[in-house]
Hints:
CATH topology of one domain: Sulfite Reductase Hemoprotein, domain 1
Helix content: 25-40%
Shape: globular
Number of helices: 17
Bound molecules: siroheme, iron/sulfur cluster
Structural class: alpha+beta
Oligomer: single chain
Amino acid sequence: MTNETKNERLDAVEHIKINSNYLRGTIVESLNDPITGSIAEDDTQLTKFHGTYQQYDRDSAKQRQKQKLEPSYSFMIRARVPGGICSTEQWLAIDEMADTYANQTIRLTTRQAFQFHGVIKTKLKPTIAAINQTLLDTLAACGDVNRNIMCSASPEVSAVHQQVFKDSVAISEHLLPQTRAYHEIWLDGEKVTESPSSNPDHEPVYGKTYLPRKFKIAVVIPPSNDVDVLAHDLGFIAITENDQLVGYNVTCGGGMGTTHGDPKTFPLLAHVVGFCLPEQAVAVAEAVVKTQRDHGCRTNRKHARFKYTVDDHGVEWLQQQLADRLGYALQEAKPFELTSHGDRFGWHQNHDGSWNHTLFISNGRVIDNEQTQIRSALKSIAQAYQGEFRITPNQNLTIAQVAESDKALIDDLLNQHQINGKPSATRQLAMACVALPTCSLAMAEAERYLPDFITEVEKIQSKHGIAGKPISIRMTGCPNGCARPFVSEVGFVGKAPGRYNMYLGGQPNGNRLNQLFRENITESDILSHLDALIGDYAKAGNTGEAFGDFVIRQGHVKAVTHGIEVHIQN
Ligand code: SRM
Ligand code: SF4
């Protein structure tokens, strides 16, 4: 079935897309409705394509219901920041917007973008317009299209970063939706609906119904796997020879999202399907996206991600699809090695002599409060130093390309704001998704709980004499997997308030999925399991053996070879 085909069995969201006139729907009418702080239900699906989600404050929801008030609606706005790179000038504008329009925080995401939370309906349009004025935008930050493209954020490891970043931006630009609805609605662009037949909207890559589901791309420069490349629908692994980029291995069919109690949903790691030259990357991306457009499931959104298309049809089928669409077959994949995920903190020198300083940002929340002055620190650095900030794939931030002569200035500013502590190796690796109070899908806490939880894990590690050993721990408030918990050594996935499924056995380079260890357990159960496991690891772990490998060797979980095994408790 192609995406232009009408079919009664299509999922409801497909009908919304078909009838939306290229993503317009009744968004304008919804924005102008003064009676409510919300927008029409169909429009909540369409605004995602424009980079914004309707949410409500879940902390106050019950109280407001008792008072017969509608929920406290607001919007999350996600910007698109290809490869996570923005200028310090852009950062200052973003920082100001957090005060003017949002909840005085900036949230760095697991996909190198940033989000504002708490934007009320009347401020939605000015905020999106202000983001565009900074030369960033929110188009396709969400929705059934290609999302923000990720790219390894550590140029110090490779002289080819600039070229790889350029290729990432080219892929991102090529896959942007072409509808003029975005400009029309948010930037007061010229209306084209009066005479659509003479000047119709046109989506050369996506067609009228876009993709069956969200689509995600990451580009990685080995040996670091900071982007978790195999967790993506489509990945490009940079292959270098003598410090020159010779091309990319192409990976297809990864993804994290699952649903509790539905064994037909599972995370998957991508397959390496071939190799392409740098100049072929954009065409390859288009061919992959079009394959998903034409063959992805449009009747069941829980089966609509590209990972299921690849899993259902097989890699050979996919290779043939790509060859037919490209007019040539991908070359055989080249050898590569991915050694670690996570970021490298502190100062590191680049191949060109400049310096990068990566700062730990607890769960990506840029905020000033009793615990941290990170927001003021970044603002003062952006005011004093003209250069580049990079959002990392692990919710941290790199002050990039700093001249030797500016290092002391930046260190001084960080010291002035007391941003000079060194978190434990386990805390540095830890990630949590946003979850409560804004995420409507959260079943348990994540971002608000993880820092205290890690303190408890640190105590256990100290007690067993392995305080300095890194263990990658990721937590999400539900099984959608926004902090990529299924590729961590220890994953916690929210089941109900205060209760989590616990997964073990991922590899610290993102190359293996973990497996369900215990279901629906509370903090005290979790900590006593961790005490026993970490105690064992301290005694019986081999030199250099990672915790994720140890728990498999000891038989606590099995080494997962296909995502379907993730839910099987040993
Ligand atoms: Fe996510 C939905 C937050 C990365 C899988 N995700 C959501 C929503 C929008 C909830 C909703 O649909 O109402 C969350 C908004 C919470 C809030 O209040 O901000 C949300 N996802 C996030 C972010 C902000 C988490 C974070 O802590 O940083 C990340 C934003 C990334 C970005 O900049 O684009 C984020 N989400 C991810 C990732 C990780 C990744 O892409 O590398 C995944 C797993 C990978 C994948 O897609 O397979 C992910 N999010 C999901 C899913 C499950 C998709 C699926 O295949 O089933 C949903 C729910 C859905 O789509 O129906 C979801
Ligand atoms: Fe929300 Fe679930 Fe994603 Fe966490 S994993 S942000 S709870 S959708």
